[in-house]
Predict the 3D structure of the following.
Amino acid sequence: MIDILLKYFPHLSENQKKQFEQLQCLYEHWNAQINVISRKDIELLYERHILHSLGIAKVMQFKENTNIMDVGCGGGFPGIPLAILFPECNFYLVDSIGKKIKVVNEIAVTIGLTNLKAEHKRAEEVKEKFEFIISRAVTEFPTFYRWVQNKVTKKQFNSLPNGILYLKGGDLTEELKSFAKRIVLYDLKDFFEEEFFETKKVVYLPL
């Protein structure tokens, strides 16, 4: 099941493999109670949710002690897969729907993720600052930017300047036109060969 992950991330530790392997059963279990992933996608969890989340890691290798906030994390994407991949970093996941946060916390505890904290909160209520803000298509980018523009710390130590890493698909020309001079787009089809990634991108905005 995790073969698709090993194809692109061959250096996973035994513990990381074990954590990733547990996700299928756990999401099937929780999805039956609280719909956190569309029913048709649960069969394609590793491609459409986990590997998609890890697209951010093809753009940015977070250094130890990086603080990352996942806004509108839903059932834990991209936060949970990235927290598994970067155990030396700190992940803070927020969502405005409490039952989704319950799922995130239950899964994190079950697989032994100690570098992740999840809270039922809106991004605007968060007082802390982070090196990076991540998300997966939670809203239109200009709206997202307004939510998080003041949440990025000035302390820099990663290979890219601090900012937003946003997973989004389709034609983004109109949506991103007000940021056109500052934004960098990374096509996931350059990293992953599956058809699903044909139009998917990581939108990077340094702040």
